[in-house]
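Action item from last week, closing it out:
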Amino acid sequence: MSISTSIKSIQDIMRKDVGVDGDAQRIGQLVWMLFLKILDDREQEWELLNDSYNSPLPEQYRWRNWAADPEGITGEELKSFIDNELFPGLQNLQIHSTTPMAYVVRAVFEDAYNYMKSGQLIRQVLNKIQAAIDFNKAQERHAFGDMYEQLLRDLQSAGNAGEFYTPRPVTEFMVRMVDPKLDEKVLDPACGTGGFLTCSIEHKRRHYVKTPEDERTLQASIYGFEKKPLPHLLATTNMVLHGIEVPSNIKHDNTLSKPLISWGPRDRVDCIIANPPFGGMEEDGIETNFPAAWRTRETADLFLVLIMHLLKDGGRAAVVLPDGFLFGDGIKSRIKEKLLTEFDLHTVIRLPKGVFNPYTGIKTNLLFFTKGRPTKNVWFYEHPYPDGVKNYSKTRPMRIEEFAIEEAWWGSEVDGFAARVENEFAWKVPVTDIQARGWSLDIKNPHRDQQLGHNPDELLAEYRQMQAEIDKLREQLKASLGLALEGRA
C-alpha cells in the first residue's frame, strides 16, 4: 500500500472517532503521532552512528516501546496511557544542555492534544503508521515528504487553519529571488507550517552544500517563530522531515509580544522570507511593544515593522502583503515612508485574485527589499493568469512554472537590475512619484488600458460571459425566493 493511500486510510479511521471534529483536528492528531514515529526512526539512525547517543525521552515514551507493536496495548489501557502518562510526561520533559531535542519535544507537546476517544481506533492508526512508513529508507522519506506537503495543502480547506499555508509556487519563487547563501541566517517570524524555511533548506542544499561541514552550517542557519500550537507542531515536524536534526531554532512564540527595542544586534539576520498573517488584529497591548509612530493592532503592519528592524544592513527580505497595505494611509503611510527611505524596495509583484483560495480571495503582493540604501525606483510586475485560466481553484492551482516569466525578467541586484525593461506586465515608478502620491504603492499597470483597448473582441466576450453569469444568478435567486414563499404558504 502506498504512503498516500495509507494516510487516507488513517484519516478515514479518524473520521469514525467521535472526538475528532474536522480536518484541522485530524491533521493535528495525525502529526503528533507522525512526529514521534519520525523521531524514533531518526534515533535508530543516530544510535547506529553514535554509540554514546542518549534519547531525550524516557524509555516508556519512545515510540518503539508503546506504539510499534501491532499487538501492543489497546482500548482503554492505551487511551489512559496517552492521556495520563505520555502527554503529561512529554509536556514536562526535563531539559538538559546535552539533549537539546528535549526542548523541541516539550515545545511540540506543550499545546498538543489527543482528540481521539477510542483506544481501539487509536491502535488501528498506530499500526497503519508503523506499517506504512520507515523514515530511514530514503525513497520512503522522499515519498512521505511529498505526502506531507499534500497534508499542508489540505489545511487550505480546513477553516481558519488555512492561514498557515502559503502555496508552494509562491514560497519557491520568493526563496529563489532572495537566494539565501549557505552561511546566511534565514528567518520567518511567523513561520506557520514552515514552508519558506523548508524551501530555503532545499535551496541551500541544491546550490551551496558540498561537504559535511557545509551541512552543519546549514543546520544552524534556519530560524522561525510561530505562536499557534498546530502550525508549530507541523513546522517542527517539517524541519525534521527536511533533515534538520534538532530544530530548536523553531520557537513556539509570538514575535510581536517582545518590545521592538529588545531585539538587539545579535538578533539581526541576513534574509527574511515571510507571509505574515493579514486581515487580523492583535490582542490589546501588543501595539505598545512598538514606538508610538508605528502603533497599530493590524498584524501585517506590525510584522513589517519588525521585519525591517530585524534585517542586517545589506539584508534582503521578501514579504507577502495584501492590497490594503499598498493604498492604506495613516500609519501605513508612515511605514511605507520608512520602507522607501531606509530600504531599497526594488520590486513589487502584484498577484492576481485567487492565489490563496479558498482561505481568502484578497489580492496579494510580493514585496522585495534590501536594507541600507534608499529606494530610487520601484519596479512593478503584474503576474498574469496562464492562458485559459480566469481564476485559481483547488483543481487548477497556481504552478511554479508560471513564475518563469518573472525569473527571466528579474536581472541582478548587483548592477541595480540594469537589464530590466518595461513590457506589458512590468513598469518602473520613480520614488519621487510615489512620495507625491502620499507614499501610495497602489499603482496600476499603465499598459493595461492599452492592452484592453487593443482587444475589443475579447472585451465583448468577457462582457457577454459576465452578463450570462449575472442572468444565471438572477434565475437562481428567483427560484430560491419562490421556494421560500411556497414554504411560508
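Closing note: Residues 451-455 have pLDDT under 50 and may be disordered.
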